[in-house]
Amino acid sequence: MARIIDETKLERIKLAAIELIVSNGYGGASISKIAKMAGVAEGYLYRHYPSKQELVKDLLRSNLNQIVETLEQSQKESEELTKIFEIVIRLFFNFAKTEPHRIKFLFALMNDYNFVIDEEIKSKIIYQCIAIKKIGLAHNQLDPQISEEDIYLFGVSYPIVFINHRIKNYFDTSELDEDAIQKVLRIVIKALF
Fold first, then answer.
1. Cut 0.85: pTM above it
2. Do 79 and 19 have their domain in common?
3. Nearest CA among 156, 168, 100, 158 for reference residue 125
4. Helices (DSSP H) in 39-80: which residue ranges?
5. What is the C-alpha separation between 34 and 48, in angstroms, rounded?
6. pLDDT (tens digit per residue) in 151-190
């Protein structure tokens, strides 16, 4: 007989993992700490995820899939790079406003040397950067010397870093508002065009 999956327990596991990774880093988020915070037995967690790596890969995959889907959809809607980047930047700002743990989680994993990104996820990101570069070059909207890595660093990484610095009030305590979105978009466009 198949076991019934308690979706609320799985959601608690995912939220606990994200919270611990954000506060303690990948290395500081052990299976036992995640299970305890989620209020489940370690065995229950292991039934669904054979390792912490698999749990975090699943979390990262679900977050990045939304980003990749947004990139794909934005490319279908427009061949104008400014519009494509604006859509993605707005997605990140929306994460920060509605689910700040998501943007903090992405930032934490981007900067944690103990975590290695899954090849499948990395391939999806690289593919999207290649597609954006092709669009930009085909429409003379991109500096020909810009690489796919540059597109990722400025179009994806920079907005995430900017938002996290604002959340932590490093330099500026202003809101993550329309002015901030336009500022990030201007910097991304200036860097890539």
1. yes
2. no
3. 156
4. 42-48, 52-77
5. 13
6. 999 999 999 999 999 999 888 888 899 999 999 999 999 9
Specify whether 83 is located in the same domain as 133: yes
User: If you ran DSSP here, which 8-state letter would residue 58 be given?
Assistant: H
Q: What are 89-145's pLDDT values in tens digits?
A: 999 999 999 999 999 999 999 888 888 888 888 898 899 999 999 999 999 999 999
User: Do 72 and 113 fall within a single domain?
Assistant: yes
Residue 190, both tokens: 């200036």
Same domain, 104 and 42: no
Number of domains making up the chain: 2
* Shared domain check, 131 and 93: yes
Q: Tell me how many degrees the CA angle 42-39-26 measures, rounded to the nearest 5.
A: 65
Q: How many of the other CB atoms lie within 10 Å of CB of 33?
A: 16
The Cα–Cα gap between 119 and 181 comes to 30
- What digits encode the pLDDT tens for the residues 21-80? 999 999 999 999 999 999 999 999 999 999 999 999 899 888 888 888 888 888 888 889
Q: What domain range includes position 181?
A: 59-192
Lookup: tokens for 153: 């660093």
